[in-house]
Amino acid sequence: MIRPLVAAALIAAFSPTQAGDAPKVLRYAFPIAETGFDPAQISDVYSRIVVANIFEAPLTYDYLARPAQLRPATAAALPEVSADFRTWTFRLKPGIHFADDPVFKGQPRELVAADYVYSIKRHYDPRWKSPNLYNFENAKIVGLSELRQKALKDKTPFDYDSEVAGLKAVDRYTFVVTVAEPLPRLANAFADAGMTGAVAREVIEAAPDKTMEHPVGTGPYRLAEWRRSSRIVLERNPGFREQRYDAQPPAHDARSQAIAARMAGKRLPLIDRVEVSIVEESQPRLLGFLNGEHDWIERLPPELSPPIIPNGRLAPHLQKKSLQLERVPAVDVGFSYFGMENPVVGGYTPAKVALRRAIGLAYDVEAEITQARKGQAVLAQSIVPPQMSGYEAAFRSEMSEHSVARARGLLDLYGYLDRDGDGFREQPDGSPLTIEYSAQPDQASRLTQDLWSKAMQRIGVRMEFKIAKWPEQLKASRAGKLMMWGLFWSATMPDGSDFLGLMYGPNKGQSNHARFDLPAYNDLYQRQARLPDGPEREALIREAKKLGVAYMPYKVTGHRILTDVLHPWVIGYRRHPFLRDSWRYLDIDNALRPDPGPNPH
């Protein structure tokens, strides 16, 4: 619902909630528990959402511009880039301060260039086991990998004070990044607070064992309360600098144009407090929203979508309540991966490739989309999703094919036969063949488990399910302990390399959950990363995608369509494909919100 525009004078005069006014509180629920709030230790999307509202990277994205456009955040301007794309110079705005913390002893603590140097180095420190390290190591920042290797070899603490050629603070507000090879899209990494958000060294060193629970950043919010896997509360950072709403929506988007006009010039953040509950089951999460306990339901659970958005539109009774609908294609990919180091499904021999391809062909992706996702996804042909460099709308592959006959033929041809007559196939050497698929206990996961079970029954392959909560599966996956697991990977930047990296060998144990490591693929990945966007790079990405289809380390399934439904008192929401820190751009109209009664917390 778009309300009438307020007068320009009122817009200019806006200030955060004044004393005596009812605080503006945003309440909603995550479907998956967070892991913590240290940029050097997290990779899951929900922790990164919280982190992006506490910490700040040098760059960000325009909230309303489509296609996405980089813009300065703590930087004074976009970085200066050398002609060979190897040297990037960032200049910060003076006068930005970290939120108050006892370690600062009552003194304002200004953000300086050395803070970004320190924060990036933390990803190389073996102590933190950063799941984002691969992004920096792939960038080949000169000297940092060697500094990490020295700490590993000598078994000594990482030397943060040792200067390296590739990362220097040249003055109080300027730092320079130098990479060994051309990286035309390096700036994207500096728009992700989950990777390049600035931390203060003295905060980390004062309590190194509490970095996941004690985030102190320069962003618009600070952590006020945390009950692990239950409740997260952020409150306005009173020391946040003056920042005004300034967005540039496309001319053809009337809704975004109206939001920009209404919000223009208002001081950010507009909301005083954000309360996040963890509600893993879909139905209670939806009921909480419909009952007004949550202000919006983010990513409407597909299995519950038919009565809410029949035919892709809000149900009439919800339209009468003036609920708002935001429905956009996600920049993500769903997949089930095969552990390439697992003795049953891994390996590069023809028989192992045939087994993975047969499993992939047996699985009915269209059934997943219609039955489990209720039409809230589109078929995937490769690991690169729409809205990314390297995506081709006309590209078709075996990834979307469903053929039980071909699957059975492949298994027969390569010796996966039922030798004892029990209805299940054995491996070519006669040993048992059991596929272990890891999954979560929620309703959506149970639906896909049923589809996988039926698919394997059709081809005579025994499948068992290992059930655990998502954070536990993630930990086991990074350690290479899972045979198969299904998840979605969401974009943080518009660069197809972000998804190609899921199959890049050096990323094993980080983004490369399958632990796929093929020299021919690795070479294609490295070559495309060094090229500017254009036909030559697109051709290399196409060859990399074909290798992913041929070897099948990932059975990609679909790209989601995300549906958000909001109560009318949430103002200014548009889902951004890459931006995580949207809370600062939202407003709450308390006059439209019913009295919630006593706070149950």
Which class of secondary structure composition applies to the elements?
Answer: alpha+beta
Q: Are there runs of 5+ residues with pLDDT below 50, and where?
A: 1-16
Portion in helices: 25-40%
* CATH architecture label name of the domain at 332-560: Roll
Task: Tell me the radius of gyration.
Answer: 25 Å
Output the CATH homologous superfamily of the domain at 332-560: Dipeptide-binding Protein, Domain 3
Our count of helices gives 18
* Major sheet size, sense and barrel closure: 5 strands, mixed
Going across the biggest sheet, name each strand in turn.
18-17-19-15-20
Question: What proportion strand?
Answer: 15-25%
The rough form would be described as globular
Key terms:
alpha+beta; Dipeptide-binding Protein, domain 3; 18 helices; 23 strands; disordered N terminus
